[in-house]
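Many introductory courses stop at the sequence. We go one step further.
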Amino acid sequence: MIIPLVVGGVLALLVLAASVRIVNQYERGVLLRLGRYIGTREPGLNFIVPFIDKMIKVDLRVVTQNIPAQEVITKDNVPIKVDAVIYYRVVDPVSAVLNVEDYEEAVFNLAQTTLRSVLGEVDLDDILAKREELSERIREIIDEKTEGWGIHVTGVEIRDVILPEEMRRAIARQAEAERDRRARVIQAEAEKQAAQDLRKASEVLGVNPGLLRTLQTLSEVSAEENVTIVIPVPIELLKLLKEPE
């Protein structure tokens, strides 16, 4: 009598353990009975019929998924590598379970193809200058396509744009040339302003503007250390300065 009671007690405990499911606050349980959807279970302690019911728990928290570097050929035929990160969450656990086999893998593959497709339609300059705009465009496309899976994409961020070495050197040369051009423009503006100031000063003093310019240059040169200035003086002037015999 004791052994059957013990065996019966053990079986009862096993059945009870198999029928208990705990759903966390950030989860929902999709319940299938003999393969048919019969309802969704809320957080807390839930009971199912062992061997007949199957509960699939779905995480409703925001998922952060890294998209590794993708080979992309831009519209202007520049090969680059771009990686990104996507943020999404499940808003309809039933659709996430019933409408797609593996929603995480599906979102990952869709993000890869969308990233390559969108960036392949724009020039390199736009990719470098309009990251936020392109990221939002990618997010909208993925969010629209995953709506039937019960997925809401909250954000997409393009992180790194890796350029070929020769392209990086070309961009560096272009930036240096632009800096030189701006420096020449600034210098020319300064020269123009200085010429205007000298002309006004010559009008006030009643002297030749060229003389003022020469005096200014001599003043700037004399400010340097260890500089000797030699000014040629006409012989006739020396004769006038010479003491009479």
